[in-house]
Amino acid sequence: MSLRPVLVLVVLGALHGTALAGTKFTSTWRAPEATGVSFAGQKVVALVISADENLRISGEEGLVREITGLGIQGVAAYRVIPKEELQDPEKARGWFERSQAVGVIAMRPVSADKERTYVPGTWASPYYSSLWGYYGYGWGAVYSPGYVKEDTRIVIETLIYRVADGKLLWAGLSESTNPKSTAKLLKDLVEEAVKEMRKQGLAGGAGR
After folding, report:
1. pLDDT band at residue 183, thresholds of 50, 70 and 90?
2. Burial of 204 (0-12, 13-18, 19+ CB in 10 A)
3. Is the pTM value of this prediction over 0.85?
4. Handedness of CA 147, 148, 151, 152 (dihedral sign)
């Protein structure tokens, strides 16, 4: 997996996590002018910024499915913008505006880091907490060696913009640890993003 933001998703399919810690937003921000703004019943473009076309398309379709379930008219960016003009801001802007979408939900990988942690063996046992507890235990015990645990942490940012004036309405940074697969990571991320949208009222209100 490349650590360059636009390539982070490419190698996710090769990850084999030993445990799934899930996806969670570690920080969020909402613009003051977002108060009272709701995308319910309106068209919103789902955009996943990735150099891998298959992952970009699957991510956008996944996001569309989720927001459509909230009463938003979701449309994937790849269906709106020609591939050859996708990365050109000026050309892409015209396509967004002609699509008559009121908003854009963009997801972009930020980083992928591996963390190595040494997990001790029997030294973590309560027998080691005191000299005399260890003294009786030590004579009859055989040492169990520790091991090194490696975790993969994926950080992705989610941004919500208004098309009319290009204003950022909401932003969030999420973390996923040891994703089992690309599909699972995207599903978890989209679900958490939608939850945050509902909390902020952008998807029709928190009570829905």
Report:
1. low
2. middle
3. no
4. negative
